[in-house]
Write a structure and sequence with these properties.
single chain; 609 residues; alpha/beta; Glutamine Phosphoribosylpyrophosphate, subunit 1, domain 1; Rossmann fold; eight-stranded antiparallel β-sheet; 20 helices; binds 5-amino-5-deoxy-1-O-phosphono-D-mannitol
Length: 609
């Protein structure tokens, strides 16, 4: 995901494009750049990091123009850096492009451009290929050159291009990545998404797949693949800018909770081939490598640590190798048994968490092999690892992590399946059974999310509580920790999670009349045990909200309220079980009037020790 903005008018392009990019930062925010057309030249400014960094550069080296294109990046090919930031230009800087998506055959095109045209590449991106291709085909008509370049490119993308020799036009092309054109008064616009333009226009054209747009100050012309003009009705936008950016959801957190089916689907899909085998693509963990490993450590912080706790169950069960899970800030200070036979799995959404990075460096220095599960491409954790297993959650904006957690779980299941199968420990029948369960998850998540109303109703009954306990056994104990963290970080309720069997060893002293206890009982093999735990807390007056698998209706006799997750194998219940807890935390925090996306005292990326 990246964001594109284009503008052409009388002047002041810089401000308009920067405004638009800020509205698109949700699509990616690891670098940004702008190319402005002025006095027959293309003037370029770009910077790694947030748009604020680009603004600083523009303050120190101001440029403006009557037209231009801008970009905010979510890295896919090449780390976030000044060089890899868009716009990219051809060799002499006479063509500039911005690109969203992936050019699948970029390697082949790059080799062709180097071999046949002697081109030197300056970045590690697939996008730079587009600038050079257009440059090679350019014979004084940008529209022609974009068509010629597109005929060579494969992939799903949107691009926008300008040429110094044609300052009166911007050309853009959509192929399976979003693109809109905005109709202004004496000016016109392009963007990846409506929020980028709402400050300036509300009348737009929705560009369809395989269409090319020619945008001038006076008009917008849309062409189809055969270069015939296309007539398009205008679309009037009635939403306000904030709602549009969040796709109509009240908060990014809720939007991200609802993006989980897609995140899981993408994460699985990127790593599974047509036969259902886990594709390592670039990760070198051969059978021989695995045979050398005698111990696995998982290190992470917060939500990622909770994913690691579930990962331990999967790896120990499918691979039969000891796994230790540690919070990263503790790992490095307790002299763990790490050597060349250790596989260290680092889990981090941002890939910038300093505690996790420090643990990684510590283990690396002792010879461990580092495999990371990371969401942000090119982040520090990703760069310093031997291998990276990316989650495909897309940008996570809300501070409370939701879709990163479930996609981390999907990665850990895939890693466990791969290791179990490669070492011959996991029988093929079991591999297939778990694989089928994983593939069914996106559909089951959709079904679960459709029942959000039930959770909202329960939240109304309990949102004034000042103390909530979460209990569970097995992987439910790990999900209880995550449910409790979600609740405390966004609602500021004092919540506490504990393994259900451990309750009687002390904490049960706190249970009294009307104490709220959330009981996770999603696993068939532990179900009866949890019924006994419910009895224990009910006997002391607790109000019980239970989480169970569809079909286990017996629990309704004991619990005061029950949420059900769709039937599934015990091994994968955490992916489904966490969702009602995320929603419960969300609705409670909303009813309490909390700042859900930016809770107090927290930051999305914790880069201090
Ligand atoms: O970016 P990371 O996954 O490394 O971040 C780790 C934690 O800081 C993070 O999960 C934090 O606990 C979240 N706010 C939880 O919602």
């Amino acid at each position: 995901m990246c964001g594109i903005v284009g503008y052409i008018g009388d002047g002041g392009a810089r401000k308009i494009i920067i405004d638009g990019l800020k509205r698109l930062e949700y699509r990616g925010y690891d670098s940004a750049g702008i190319a402005l057309l002025s006095e027959g030249r293309i003037k370029l400014r770009k910077a790694a990091g947030r748009i604020a960094n680009l603004e600083k550069i523009l303050e120190n080296a101001p440029v403006d123009g009557h037209a231009g294109i801008g970009h905010t990046r979510w890295a896919t090919h090449g780390a976030p850096s000044d060089e890899n930031a868009h716009p990219h230009t051809n060799g002499d800087g006479s063509i500039a492009i911005v690109h969203n998506g992936i050019i699948e055959n970029y390697q082949e095109l790059k080799e062709w451009l180097v071999r046949e045209h002697g081109i030197t590449f300056r970045s590690e991106t697939d996008s730079e290929v587009v600038a050079h291709l257009i440059g090679v085909f350019y014979k004084g008509n940008l529209l022609d050159a974009v068509y010629d370049a597109a005929a060579k490119m494969r992939g799903a993308y949107a691009i926008s291009a300008v040429a110094a020799a044609e300052p009166d036009r911007i050309v853009a092309l959509r192929k399976d990545a979003p693109l809109i054109a905005g109709i202004g008064d004496g000016c016109n616009f392009l963007a990846s998404d409506i929020p980028a333009l709402l400050k300036y226009v509300r009348t737009i054209y929705l560009i369809e797949n395989n269409e090319t747009v020619l945008v001038t100050q006076d008009g917008i012309t849309i062409f189809n693949e055969r270069r015939e003009k296309v007539k398009r009705d205008v679309f009037h936008v009635s939403w306000d800018a904030d709602a549009a950016e969040k796709d109509g959801y009240d908060h990014f957190m809720l939007k991200e909770i609802f993006e989980q089916p897609k995140g899981i689907f993408e994460t699985l899909n990127r790593r599974l081939d047509a036969d259902g085998r886990v594709r390592l693509d670039g990760i070198s963990l051969t059978k021989q490598d695995l045979e050398k490993i005698d111990r696995v450590y998982i290190v992470a912080c917060g939500t990622a640590y909770h994913a690691g706790l579930v990962g331990k169950y999967a790896i120990e069960k499918f691979v039969r190798i000891p796994v230790e899970v540690d919070v990263a800030s503790e790992f490095r200070y307790r002299e763990p048994f790490v050597n060349e036979k250790t596989l260290l799995i680092c889990i981090s959404q941002s890939g910038e968490t300093l505690d996790t990075l420090a643990a990684l460096r510590e283990a690396r220095a002792k010879g461990a092999r580092i495999l990371s599960v990371v969401n942000v491409v090119g982040s520090s954790v990703a760069r310093e690892s031997d291998d990276v297993f990316y989650t495909w959650a897309g940008p996570e904006i809300a501070v409370a992590s939701t879709k990163a957690f479930t996609t981390q779980l999907a990665c850990l299941y895939l890693i466990a399946l791969y290791m179990g199968s490669a070492t011959g420990v996991l029988p093929e029948g079991e591999y297939r059974r778990i694989l089928d369960e994983l593939n069914a998850l996106p559909g089951k998540l959709e079904a679960l999310l459709a029942d959000e109303r039930t959770i909202r109703e329960v939240a109304k009954k309990i949102y004034k509580k000042e103390q909530i306990f979460f209990i569970g056994r097995g992987t439910d104990a790990s999900v209880a920790l995550e449910g409790s963290l979600k609740l405390k970080e966004i609602s500021y309720i004092n919540s506490f999670a504990i393994a259900a069997g451990e309750l009687k060893h002390g904490t049960i002293a706190l249970i009294e009349q009307d104490t709220l206890v959330v009981v996770l009982a999603t696993q068939d093999r532990l179900f009866e045990k949890l019924l006994s735990n419910i009895e224990e807390v009910k006997a002391r007056g607790a109000y019980v909200i239970a989480l169970a698998k569809e079909g286990n209706r017996k629990i309704e006799k004991q619990a005061d309220d029950v949420f059900y997750i769709p039937a599934c194998a015990d091994e994968v219940t955490p992916v489904l079980g966490v969702v009602p807890l995320q929603l419960l935390a969300y609705h409670i925090a909303k009813l309490r009037g909390c700042d859900i996306d930016k809770p107090k005292n927290l930051a999305k990326s914790v880069t201090v020790e």
